[in-house]
Amino acid sequence: MKKSLHKNLILLGMPGSGKSTLGKLLAEKLGWHLVDTDLLMEANHDRPLQDIFDGLGYEGFCVEEERTLIQLDGEQQIISTGGSAIYSESAMSHLGSLGLRIFLNLPLVDVLSRVTNFEKRGIACRPGQDLAELFKERQPLYLRYADHVIETGGMSVEEQVHKLQELLN
Description:
alpha/beta
């Protein structure tokens, strides 16, 4: 396999867009390390993401997520970010220095059908904000920070993994 032009691949997108699933499959396929930043936060706090969010609140959670992202370093990693990573300009800039930022753009209808545990999933949102409002708020931020956008609606997981591999070379 020829050497990749990029040191890392960073996956951005809404909850349910497949960042963790695709990250795991692509990391296995490439022999790279998977860094799931949600799992990293859980390990750092020794508790589930929702408990971290409940304890820190919206603002505190975003600060903690930024701290986690800015500490990332290394090469040959698939970095699966939390959906709210795009709220931190400094974290997005840092991630951009580490590799290629890919936005997995899943249509809202698919996000709504996949994310059935919205209140318990540790999703950073303001009180009273629903998933559709969150989607509308985040979409322009994902597009701003993405080096590439993959329209994932209607694509199989295998097709998405193939598309990501193409972007690496």
